[in-house]
Amino acid sequence: MAYRIGIVGVTGAVGQELLALMAKRNFPVAELRPLASARSAGSKVTYGGKEWTVQEAKPEAFEGLDFAIFSAGGSISLALAPEAVKRGCIVIDNSSAYRMFPDVPLVIPEINAHHLANHKGIIANPNCSTAIALMGLYPLHQAFGLTRFFASTYQAVSGTGAEAMRELDAQARAWAKGETLAPKVYPHTINFNLIPQVDSFLEDGYTKEEMKMLNEGRKIMDLPGLKVTTTCVRVPVFRAHSIAISAEFERPVDIALARKAISAFPGAELCDDPANKKYPMPLDYAGKEKCGVGRLRKDTLFDNGISLWVSGDQLWKGAALNAIQIAEALHAQGRLARK
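Given the sequence above, the corresponding structure tokens read:
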């Protein structure tokens, strides 16, 4: 069976990755309906060896579609996702708009594909850093029972979008000429710098991005009592996020068993040979479907603790790939075609 698919935000960074990944994974497409703002309407995108005309994303654009993937920001999702659902179209949403709605499944297929049975038309994709962190943490949770963790993220500029990637590139080129270029996307220069702020600050001093790791991790893993504290940092890396994690578990940990659990997990690739300087790095995991997990060692703070390092492509597992995997899981469960 092939499907009629809408891609909202098709001209953006994630939208372009969606097209590339659908082709790479041979997703069955009967019709592609590229959707974007009125400004982009009329432009062309290429998929499956042919050109498709971009249409304006508005309620009637979802008529006749089996499903649509939204990657155009929370305000667009809030306005148009219900309109798509009214027209019989399933929505897979990449924004944060619906993630914490009680009746909206928040899904990483390797972890909780069974939650898809409960959807009411909208399915949420998790935050990029949450998805990448859980590729390392969930197999350890299965082995030892996760209770809490500390995380420090090293987030690539691709998480902000194409304009941020251009800004880093321009600042690096200016530096090479002995020049300076004032920041526009970020509040500070990102080239050769670290910015310990991703998203806006809340009253308690955490950012919205940092609280996503706690709230989304609890929901995805069905662990309402999970304790998490996170510091999110933007780094001068073009693509792929990395996360340093120290986690505590219910049961005594064994590093050999931990490595075995990660190696067997479908979303992860064990890259853990420090003696030979092998560990996950953003350059190696940009453009890879699996997330790399390494630097595994017993934590010196927690009694039943493991410290680890995870790297993964934010545009793929953190966004486009996970959305396509949700569609693939719906297809496998027979839940994707219009009734």
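Residues 140 and 258 are 6 Å apart (CA to CA). Try to locate this feature in the token string yourself.
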